[in-house]
Amino acid sequence: MSYREKPQPSIRVLRAGPLALLQDSGRFGVRHLGVTQGGPADLYSWAWANHLTGNSWGTANLEITFGGLLLVAERDLNIAIAGADLGATLNNEPVPLWQRVRWKEGEVLAFARPMSGLRAYLAVCGGFVAEPVLGSVASVVREELGGFSGKGCKLEEGDLLSVHAGGKNSGPGSMQAPKEAHPDFSQPAVLDLLPGAQIAHFAGRSLFDAFNTWWQVDDRADRMGVRLIGPKLYCNIRSLVSEGINLGGVQVPPDGQPIVLLNDRQTIGGYPRLGSLSPLSASRLAQCLPKQRVRLVASGHEAALRELRLFRRQFECVRDNNVML
């Protein structure tokens, strides 16, 4: 079904909450235009939500940050919620996470507040309907791109959301994720870091501290990046020509406190980089609440690539238009 066929609305927003965004796998091939990738901050949970509803890789679902969202179904739907526990309820009854659930017409789906983790992903069988902008429907609020409006807007009270035809029917895929696939977001996060080109320019003591300290997530964190609080890191590079910034890049500005760049990051930057988090470690960091502790562990490129390949193969997809594995 094309977007222009104007399918009937399937979900109505009763209360929007602080931040709910439509996210597909991201906007690729446009960074040379200064356009960032967007996409799910937690790729792991986003992928599982889609898989549990039988959607193909890349299908857009809702990224719900902090909770506060209230929705009512305009028709029967099959859904799955993965990621953070935001106290989701269906007609005031707790909704099981990490499995497919029936959402009946007229029932109210509510997200309260973070109980474990920060971001939940709501997928609907068939996928949400939105018109792509630069090849993607991923919402980037700062750049005013993507989403249901095409302008990157977060959900607002009164919005009507449409789902592709056939969405009420169960698609292929697992009905429930295995228990070992459920991350425990309440625990401190151990993050794999691939050393970068400038790592040799950091003082020896700083390198020791970087990998032997439990860092704390600062409250200055959003979809652009997450600042870590801990010992001051020193780098002998005084100036650096701006270069491309990848997902998970760990920049160290003059104050010595690392900033891990996420999906809505700028496309170039001039601070020295300690390295980059692996994609799945960047996803894990995106679920950390302020004050949570994280630790950096040096990892090799081959190990990170192997981990990503194994992850993608769970969803019977080892190649798409954006990633070749």
Task: Provide a concise account of the structure shown.
With 325 residues, the protein is of the alpha+beta class.
Question: How is this structure best described in words?
Answer:
This is Biotin-dependent carboxyltransferase family protein. This protein has helices at 43-52, 204-212, 279-285, 301-313; strands spanning 9-15, 19-23, 61-65, 70-73, 77-85, 89-90, 93-94, 100-103, 108-110, 116-124, 160-162, 189-195, 215-221, 225-229, 243-244, 249-251, 259-261, 268-269, 273-277, 293-298. The protein has a seven-stranded mixed beta barrel with strand order 12-19-16-17-14-13-20. Strands 7-6-9-4-1-11 form a six-stranded antiparallel β-sheet, with no helix packed on it. A five-stranded antiparallel β-sheet has the order 2-3-10-5-8. The protein has four helices and 20 strands. The chain has two domains: 3-181, no CATH class; 189-313, Cyclophilin-like (Cyclophilin, Beta Barrel), CATH 2.40.100.10. It is α+β, with helices and mostly antiparallel strands. The longest helix is centred in the C-terminal third of the chain and has 13 residues, at 301-313.
Key phrases:
single chain, 325 residues, alpha+beta, Cyclophilin, 7-stranded mixed barrel, 6-stranded antiparallel β-sheet, 4 helices, globular, disordered C terminus
Please specify the SSE layout and strand pairing.
Elements: E1 9-15, E2 19-23, H1 43-52, E3 61-65, E4 70-73, E5 77-85, E6 89-90, E7 93-94, E8 100-103, E9 108-110, E10 116-124, E11 160-162, E12 189-195, H2 204-212, E13 215-221, E14 225-229, E15 243-244, E16 249-251, E17 259-261, E18 268-269, E19 273-277, H3 279-285, E20 293-298, H4 301-313
Organism: Marinobacter xiaoshiensis
Pfam family, one: CT_A_B
Keywords: ATP-binding, Hydrolase, Nucleotide-binding
